[in-house]
Write a structure and sequence with these properties.
The protein is 11% helix and 32% strand. The protein is built from seven helices and 39 strands.
Length: 752
Amino acid sequence: MKNTIRIIRVTLIAIGFLVLFGGIQLTAQTLRWLRVGQLQSFIVDYGSENELTPVSSNSFLWPAQYGDNQYTSRMKSLWMGSTNFLDPADGKLHAVKVIGSGPRYDAASQPAMIFNRTIKLIGRKKSPLIIVDGVPASANDQYDVLDEVRPTLDCDRMVEVTFNTSIGVSVTKRVKAFTSQNHDNYYIYDYTFKNTGIYNAAGDVSPQKLNNFWAHFGYRYAFSGVTSSGWGSTWGDFASEWGTSTISNDFGPYRPLTTIAVPTTTDTLRGFYAFYGPDKARTVTYDQDWGCPNQNGGGTGLNGLLGSAKYAGTVTLYAPISAQNTADNPQQPATTSYFNTDDPIEAATVSQYDDAFMQLRWALMTEGHLPHSMEEDVGNQYAADFYSSHPSRYGGNQGQGYGPYTLATGDSIRIVFAEGVSGMSWEKCREVGAVWYEYYKGLSSPALVFPAGKTGSTYTDYTKAWVQTGKDSLLQTFRSARAMFRSGYKLPQPPDPPSSFTVTSGGDGIQLAWTSPVDPNNLVNGYVIYRSANDVKDYRTFYTKIFECNKSVAQYKDTTAARGVQYYYYIQSKDDGTRNELKHGTPLYSSLFLTMTSKPAFLLRRAGNLLNEVRVVPNPFDIRARKWQWSGVTGTTGGLDQISFFGIPGYCTLRIFTENGTLIWQKEHTDGSGDEKWNSQTSSGQVIVSGIYILLVEVTEDIIAKEDRLAWYDMYDENQNLEYHTGDIVYHAGDKIFSKGQSIIRKFVVIR
């Protein structure tokens, strides 16, 4: 069976290529994205996020600030079942009827069980307008596309899905996401299962009572993330992409967590957590492999980086006693077993009319609670060693089953749970990993500073102790989700981000400007700006806070930028910290993902000091050599037809004429830099032909030196006489550099 699954995976790689390059056209109704917090994922309209879909097999990214490949989930499933079901499709009475979605997508059978109806993304407000150098520059423009703006929404984003099923149950699924730093690492799933009797895509109805109805959710987490991405291992085990070393632990009134003191079982957390267990296929030892440290190194930020130091799982927030008694039942979920991912009943090809097959699924759905959790059963050994002696539990899928319920026609039940991810911050993963690396390589013996309440004597004790703080972080996430649900979604939320954020490359700095959000409740207290260099939203990215201000400020010039570096920015609104329910005094911040730029800004060439510095480059422009001229050069916008104008005044008008004096292009240069680009097209978009062209540069305002202006290279006059050595003062502060109306002409040749 494992070989069969691997063959299917290879097939899906080919499908992935087709998706990427246009071979398969996915409809707009297939999925929606939640990308406004540190937890990001797509939500599909066919029940659950399966493996082997035409979309992706990996989802649930955290922390998304450090990469779109920080995924933690390999597959999910949603099964529904009932007993003594008279199937209107085949006219037979089935002792057990089980239908569902996943864990592996089945393009033949699943569409005959799940009938998509609607999917939409709803938000309280649209995303801000993000502009870099005059063009839209937010990756969210492609993902955070709202189908509906609902100002009264009780969360920041919500995906709402509806579908019918062949068991006669109509499902409404609402997935809620939040942007507050206290709540942006979990989603709240609110399901309604209603017995409508609709049993096919045509909407035909066959009313009947559903006896012993169960809804069962399955999860297979895989924490490979950046350590093994898509086509091969970065430093982790490639097989960890399928969660081969994942370990889970379920808990509830039947097995309370000893780390949480609670007064009554009604407040006992009910759920499970999962984490990356040491992987036997890795080149490091069991004790060395907590958090999957980067044994290959790579320099600062990569040496020993803990790529999988995170925990994921779910917590039940509400499940009724019955369709009539809607009080929360603390004994739900009633099934919490872990099971074999590669069992036949988990396969892609299923038949809802195979009674023996459905009996096997039914047995798993209604299995109840096992004597021990998976974590207890595995103990201090590799998961692979445990599986070798317990093949029926291979793969570590964790189930959460709710039932049994009796649903008469028209009856419904509602099930609400939160799913989240937490763990060490990425900065802490770098810090602890760097210490691990020093010991692992025998380079030095840094001090081992353990987390509060933890002790040990070795660097592997130290690493494990820090990794396991992720469990406490996830349990706090569960409590935060429960508090949010119990409050009726009324916990304080952060102020809105600026309604626009504009970044403009310049010659004496990079200019940032923003528009304050509409703020009727006066929540905005100020703003904070972060910057990264040369990459963004990547596990190698470093973010640095470069500016903080009060709410009256609306612009900032980044004068610390260096030439030759690509810069990315984000800005966050902040409140005064008095509303933070977890850390009083710490401001609540708006989502960084709503303003993060996806296109780079640059420190451009400094403005010219003398008009005779103006140059046209290349001159002549020869189309036969264009692929070697500017395309892909760092610090330029690229483009095979690009012609650049260097050494121009910071504020001027550029006009291009044909040799006979016809004006074909004009641009106002206002960014204060010394260079401008032209794409070899007229103002009406026509590509120019071979010929001689004339550039007219005209100063548009008096330009005064704000400080001493130095020659930054040896400067010559028109007759090639040296005027200034590098470093000479060309103008003193207060001197007039250019007068409005000064101009200069340059001729250049284009060969096409």
